[in-house]
Design a protein that fits this description.
The protein is of the alpha/beta class and 316 residues long. It is built from 9 helices and 18 strands. The strands form 4 sheets. The protein has a 7-stranded mixed beta sheet with strand order 5-2-1-6-7-9-10. Strands 12, 13, 14, 15, 16, 17 and 18 form a 7-stranded antiparallel beta sheet that branches. Strand 6, helix 4 and strand 7 form a beta-alpha-beta unit. Helix 5 packs antiparallel against helix 8.
Protein backbone atom coordinates (compact mmCIF):
# COMPACT_ATOMS: atom_id res chain seq x y z
CA UNK A 1 0.00 0.00 0.00
CA UNK A 2 1.26 3.45 -0.91
CA UNK A 3 2.13 5.93 1.80
CA UNK A 4 -0.17 8.94 2.02
CA UNK A 5 2.22 11.84 1.45
CA UNK A 6 1.76 15.35 2.81
CA UNK A 7 4.45 17.50 1.23
CA UNK A 8 6.02 20.83 2.14
CA UNK A 9 7.93 22.34 -0.80
CA UNK A 10 10.79 24.85 -0.40
CA UNK A 11 12.24 26.88 -3.25
CA UNK A 12 12.61 30.37 -4.66
CA UNK A 13 13.65 30.87 -8.35
CA UNK A 14 12.23 29.72 -11.69
CA UNK A 15 14.34 26.56 -11.49
CA UNK A 16 12.20 25.45 -8.52
CA UNK A 17 8.85 26.34 -10.13
CA UNK A 18 9.12 23.50 -12.68
CA UNK A 19 9.34 20.94 -9.85
CA UNK A 20 6.46 22.44 -7.84
CA UNK A 21 4.36 22.52 -11.00
CA UNK A 22 5.15 18.82 -11.65
CA UNK A 23 4.10 17.89 -8.11
CA UNK A 24 0.77 19.70 -8.56
CA UNK A 25 0.20 18.19 -12.03
CA UNK A 26 0.86 14.72 -10.59
CA UNK A 27 -1.79 15.53 -7.95
CA UNK A 28 0.48 15.29 -4.93
CA UNK A 29 -0.80 16.81 -1.72
CA UNK A 30 1.35 19.94 -1.22
CA UNK A 31 0.27 21.25 2.18
CA UNK A 32 2.66 24.20 2.28
CA UNK A 33 5.22 26.16 0.28
CA UNK A 34 8.17 27.96 1.85
CA UNK A 35 9.91 30.64 -0.20
CA UNK A 36 12.05 33.77 0.22
CA UNK A 37 10.49 36.98 1.58
CA UNK A 38 9.47 39.61 -0.99
CA UNK A 39 12.20 42.15 -1.66
CA UNK A 40 12.70 45.39 -3.59
CA UNK A 41 14.30 44.87 -7.02
CA UNK A 42 15.20 46.83 -10.14
CA UNK A 43 15.62 50.56 -10.61
CA UNK A 44 12.24 51.48 -9.17
CA UNK A 45 12.94 49.26 -6.13
CA UNK A 46 9.48 47.76 -6.57
CA UNK A 47 8.66 44.95 -4.19
CA UNK A 48 9.11 41.68 -6.06
CA UNK A 49 7.92 38.25 -5.05
CA UNK A 50 9.76 35.03 -5.84
CA UNK A 51 8.82 32.96 -8.90
CA UNK A 52 7.78 30.14 -6.54
CA UNK A 53 5.45 32.45 -4.58
CA UNK A 54 3.77 33.66 -7.78
CA UNK A 55 3.09 30.09 -8.93
CA UNK A 56 2.06 28.85 -5.46
CA UNK A 57 -0.41 31.74 -5.10
CA UNK A 58 -1.91 30.92 -8.52
CA UNK A 59 -2.59 27.39 -7.22
CA UNK A 60 -4.07 28.58 -3.90
CA UNK A 61 -1.30 26.89 -1.88
CA UNK A 62 -0.45 27.76 1.73
CA UNK A 63 2.63 30.06 1.52
CA UNK A 64 5.19 30.85 4.22
CA UNK A 65 8.01 33.43 3.85
CA UNK A 66 10.08 33.25 7.03
CA UNK A 67 13.08 35.55 7.47
CA UNK A 68 14.34 33.31 10.28
CA UNK A 69 14.02 29.52 9.86
CA UNK A 70 14.59 29.00 13.58
CA UNK A 71 11.89 31.37 14.82
CA UNK A 72 9.30 29.79 17.11
CA UNK A 73 6.37 31.19 15.15
CA UNK A 74 7.63 29.66 11.91
CA UNK A 75 8.47 26.28 13.48
CA UNK A 76 5.01 26.11 15.07
CA UNK A 77 3.32 26.92 11.76
CA UNK A 78 5.44 24.30 9.97
CA UNK A 79 4.62 21.65 12.59
CA UNK A 80 0.92 22.44 12.32
CA UNK A 81 0.93 21.38 8.66
CA UNK A 82 1.72 17.77 9.68
CA UNK A 83 3.86 17.20 6.59
CA UNK A 84 5.63 13.85 6.38
CA UNK A 85 7.97 14.79 3.47
CA UNK A 86 9.83 17.97 2.58
CA UNK A 87 11.28 18.73 -0.86
CA UNK A 88 13.90 21.43 -1.38
CA UNK A 89 14.86 22.94 -4.75
CA UNK A 90 17.12 26.03 -4.91
CA UNK A 91 16.51 27.27 -1.38
CA UNK A 92 18.78 28.14 1.52
CA UNK A 93 20.52 25.94 4.06
CA UNK A 94 18.03 24.47 6.55
CA UNK A 95 18.53 24.17 10.30
CA UNK A 96 18.44 20.61 11.67
CA UNK A 97 15.16 21.38 13.46
CA UNK A 98 13.53 21.86 10.06
CA UNK A 99 15.03 19.09 7.93
CA UNK A 100 14.57 16.47 10.65
CA UNK A 101 10.90 17.33 11.20
CA UNK A 102 9.06 15.12 8.65
CA UNK A 103 8.73 11.36 9.17
CA UNK A 104 9.96 10.45 5.66
CA UNK A 105 12.78 13.00 5.62
CA UNK A 106 13.74 16.05 3.58
CA UNK A 107 15.31 15.64 0.17
CA UNK A 108 16.97 18.14 -2.13
CA UNK A 109 17.32 18.41 -5.90
CA UNK A 110 20.81 19.57 -6.88
CA UNK A 111 21.86 20.52 -10.42
CA UNK A 112 25.00 18.36 -10.67
CA UNK A 113 26.18 14.77 -10.44
CA UNK A 114 27.16 14.78 -6.78
CA UNK A 115 29.72 14.75 -5.19
CA UNK A 116 30.99 17.05 -7.96
CA UNK A 117 29.88 20.68 -7.99
CA UNK A 118 28.51 20.99 -4.49
CA UNK A 119 27.72 24.62 -3.82
CA UNK A 120 25.93 27.67 -5.14
CA UNK A 121 26.51 27.70 -8.91
CA UNK A 122 26.81 24.13 -10.27
CA UNK A 123 25.33 24.91 -13.69
CA UNK A 124 27.76 27.75 -14.39
CA UNK A 125 30.89 25.94 -13.20
CA UNK A 126 30.18 22.78 -15.21
CA UNK A 127 30.36 24.88 -18.39
CA UNK A 128 33.19 27.17 -17.21
CA UNK A 129 35.28 24.03 -16.54
CA UNK A 130 34.53 22.64 -20.00
CA UNK A 131 32.58 19.57 -18.83
CA UNK A 132 30.89 17.50 -21.53
CA UNK A 133 28.30 16.09 -19.14
CA UNK A 134 26.58 17.00 -15.90
CA UNK A 135 23.21 16.06 -14.45
CA UNK A 136 20.86 16.23 -11.49
CA UNK A 137 20.83 14.43 -8.14
CA UNK A 138 18.26 13.94 -5.42
CA UNK A 139 19.60 13.32 -1.92
CA UNK A 140 18.45 13.34 1.68
CA UNK A 141 19.64 16.46 3.48
CA UNK A 142 22.10 16.16 6.34
CA UNK A 143 23.98 18.71 8.46
CA UNK A 144 26.45 19.75 5.74
CA UNK A 145 25.88 21.33 2.30
CA UNK A 146 25.07 18.89 -0.54
CA UNK A 147 26.69 15.92 1.22
CA UNK A 148 23.68 13.71 2.03
CA UNK A 149 23.01 10.18 0.75
CA UNK A 150 22.03 10.13 -2.93
CA UNK A 151 18.64 8.74 -3.93
CA UNK A 152 18.68 9.12 -7.74
CA UNK A 153 20.85 10.73 -10.42
CA UNK A 154 20.41 11.46 -14.11
CA UNK A 155 23.07 12.51 -16.63
CA UNK A 156 22.72 15.33 -19.15
CA UNK A 157 25.12 16.04 -22.02
CA UNK A 158 26.62 19.51 -22.46
CA UNK A 159 27.23 20.39 -26.09
CA UNK A 160 30.03 22.75 -27.13
CA UNK A 161 27.84 25.78 -27.84
CA UNK A 162 25.42 25.51 -24.90
CA UNK A 163 25.44 28.42 -22.46
CA UNK A 164 24.43 28.44 -18.79
CA UNK A 165 20.88 29.53 -19.66
CA UNK A 166 20.40 26.61 -22.07
CA UNK A 167 21.76 24.13 -19.52
CA UNK A 168 19.65 25.65 -16.72
CA UNK A 169 16.46 25.03 -18.73
CA UNK A 170 17.42 21.47 -19.61
CA UNK A 171 18.38 20.57 -16.02
CA UNK A 172 15.21 22.23 -14.75
CA UNK A 173 13.09 19.87 -16.90
CA UNK A 174 15.14 16.75 -16.19
CA UNK A 175 15.29 17.67 -12.48
CA UNK A 176 11.53 18.05 -12.10
CA UNK A 177 11.12 14.57 -13.60
CA UNK A 178 13.72 13.14 -11.22
CA UNK A 179 11.89 14.63 -8.22
CA UNK A 180 8.67 12.89 -9.30
CA UNK A 181 10.58 9.57 -9.64
CA UNK A 182 12.04 10.14 -6.16
CA UNK A 183 8.62 10.88 -4.65
CA UNK A 184 7.20 7.74 -6.27
CA UNK A 185 9.95 5.68 -4.60
CA UNK A 186 9.28 7.27 -1.19
CA UNK A 187 5.56 6.56 -1.60
CA UNK A 188 6.35 2.84 -1.80
CA UNK A 189 8.35 2.67 1.43
CA UNK A 190 11.91 3.20 2.67
CA UNK A 191 14.27 3.98 -0.24
CA UNK A 192 17.77 2.64 -0.74
CA UNK A 193 20.35 5.42 -0.88
CA UNK A 194 24.02 5.64 -1.76
CA UNK A 195 26.51 7.54 0.43
CA UNK A 196 28.57 10.08 -1.49
CA UNK A 197 32.17 8.87 -1.85
CA UNK A 198 34.61 10.57 0.48
CA UNK A 199 38.27 11.39 -0.02
CA UNK A 200 38.09 11.64 -3.82
CA UNK A 201 39.10 14.88 -5.55
CA UNK A 202 35.91 16.78 -6.43
CA UNK A 203 35.14 20.04 -8.24
CA UNK A 204 33.38 22.84 -6.36
CA UNK A 205 30.61 25.18 -7.53
CA UNK A 206 31.88 28.37 -5.90
CA UNK A 207 29.56 31.32 -5.43
CA UNK A 208 29.89 33.66 -8.40
CA UNK A 209 31.36 37.07 -7.65
CA UNK A 210 32.90 40.02 -9.46
CA UNK A 211 36.40 38.52 -9.36
CA UNK A 212 35.58 35.09 -10.78
CA UNK A 213 33.33 36.57 -13.48
CA UNK A 214 36.17 38.72 -14.88
CA UNK A 215 37.74 37.38 -18.08
CA UNK A 216 41.43 36.53 -17.86
CA UNK A 217 42.67 37.08 -21.42
CA UNK A 218 45.90 35.20 -20.60
CA UNK A 219 43.94 31.95 -20.25
CA UNK A 220 43.70 29.51 -23.17
CA UNK A 221 41.28 30.07 -26.04
CA UNK A 222 39.03 27.25 -24.78
CA UNK A 223 39.06 28.51 -21.18
CA UNK A 224 37.97 32.01 -22.20
CA UNK A 225 35.27 30.70 -24.55
CA UNK A 226 33.89 28.40 -21.82
CA UNK A 227 34.06 31.19 -19.25
CA UNK A 228 31.88 33.46 -21.41
CA UNK A 229 29.23 30.83 -22.17
CA UNK A 230 29.28 29.53 -18.59
CA UNK A 231 28.24 32.96 -17.31
CA UNK A 232 25.67 33.76 -20.00
CA UNK A 233 23.05 35.14 -19.78
CA UNK A 234 23.57 35.78 -16.07
CA UNK A 235 25.57 37.20 -14.36
CA UNK A 236 27.72 37.60 -17.55
CA UNK A 237 31.48 37.59 -17.98
CA UNK A 238 33.03 41.05 -17.96
CA UNK A 239 36.22 42.81 -18.98
CA UNK A 240 37.78 46.25 -18.87
CA UNK A 241 38.42 47.78 -22.29
CA UNK A 242 40.89 50.58 -22.90
CA UNK A 243 39.58 52.52 -25.89
CA UNK A 244 41.67 55.63 -26.51
CA UNK A 245 41.21 57.83 -23.42
CA UNK A 246 38.22 55.79 -22.20
CA UNK A 247 38.30 52.89 -19.78
CA UNK A 248 35.08 50.93 -20.21
CA UNK A 249 33.61 47.95 -18.43
CA UNK A 250 31.93 45.60 -20.90
CA UNK A 251 29.81 42.50 -20.38
CA UNK A 252 30.25 39.78 -22.99
CA UNK A 253 27.39 37.33 -23.52
CA UNK A 254 28.31 35.41 -26.62
CA UNK A 255 31.50 34.69 -28.54
CA UNK A 256 33.09 32.24 -30.90
CA UNK A 257 36.66 31.01 -30.95
CA UNK A 258 38.99 31.30 -33.90
CA UNK A 259 42.12 29.13 -33.83
CA UNK A 260 44.88 30.96 -35.66
CA UNK A 261 48.54 31.84 -35.24
CA UNK A 262 49.22 35.56 -34.83
CA UNK A 263 51.82 37.95 -33.46
CA UNK A 264 49.51 40.34 -31.58
CA UNK A 265 50.00 40.95 -27.85
CA UNK A 266 47.33 39.27 -25.71
CA UNK A 267 44.27 41.51 -25.27
CA UNK A 268 44.77 43.43 -28.53
CA UNK A 269 41.38 44.40 -30.01
CA UNK A 270 40.94 44.14 -33.78
CA UNK A 271 37.78 45.72 -35.13
CA UNK A 272 36.18 46.22 -38.52
CA UNK A 273 32.70 47.54 -39.28
CA UNK A 274 31.26 44.08 -38.65
CA UNK A 275 33.65 42.29 -36.30
CA UNK A 276 35.34 42.69 -32.93
CA UNK A 277 38.09 40.23 -32.05
CA UNK A 278 40.40 39.95 -29.05
CA UNK A 279 43.81 38.37 -29.52
CA UNK A 280 44.49 35.48 -27.12
CA UNK A 281 47.07 32.70 -26.85
CA UNK A 282 45.94 30.29 -29.57
CA UNK A 283 43.89 32.65 -31.71
CA UNK A 284 41.05 35.10 -31.23
CA UNK A 285 37.84 35.42 -29.27
CA UNK A 286 35.30 36.83 -31.71
CA UNK A 287 32.75 38.80 -29.67
CA UNK A 288 29.14 38.38 -30.87
CA UNK A 289 26.95 39.90 -28.11
CA UNK A 290 28.14 42.70 -25.81
CA UNK A 291 26.92 45.39 -23.43
CA UNK A 292 28.82 48.64 -22.95
CA UNK A 293 28.10 51.08 -20.09
CA UNK A 294 24.92 53.08 -20.68
CA UNK A 295 23.94 50.95 -23.66
CA UNK A 296 21.69 47.95 -23.91
CA UNK A 297 22.96 44.48 -24.73
CA UNK A 298 23.38 44.20 -28.50
CA UNK A 299 24.90 42.10 -31.24
CA UNK A 300 28.31 43.30 -32.36
CA UNK A 301 27.22 44.52 -35.81
CA UNK A 302 24.59 46.81 -34.25
CA UNK A 303 27.16 48.19 -31.80
CA UNK A 304 29.81 48.81 -34.47
CA UNK A 305 27.22 50.61 -36.57
CA UNK A 306 27.42 53.58 -34.20
CA UNK A 307 30.50 53.00 -32.07
CA UNK A 308 34.15 52.58 -32.95
CA UNK A 309 37.26 51.21 -31.28
CA UNK A 310 40.60 52.99 -31.68
CA UNK A 311 43.58 51.28 -33.29
CA UNK A 312 45.34 50.84 -29.93
CA UNK A 313 42.32 49.61 -27.96
CA UNK A 314 42.78 46.56 -25.79
CA UNK A 315 40.94 44.25 -23.42
CA UNK A 316 42.52 44.20 -19.96
Amino acid sequence: MKRDLKIVFMGTPDFAVATLKSLIEHQYNVVGVITAPDKPAGRGRKIQESAVKTYAASQGLHIMQPTNLKSEAFLEELKSLNANLQIVVAFRMLPELVWKMPEYGTFNLHASLLPNYRGAAPINWAIINGETKTGVSTFFIDEKIDTGEVILQKEVEINKTMNAGDLHDQLMDVGSGLVIETVELIELGPVSTKPQPEGLPTKTAYKLNRDNCKINWHNSLDQIYNHIRGLSPYPAAWTSIENGEELLEAKIYKSEKIEENHQYPIGTILSTKKELKVAVREGYINILDIKLPGKKKMDIKSLLNGYSFSENSKAL
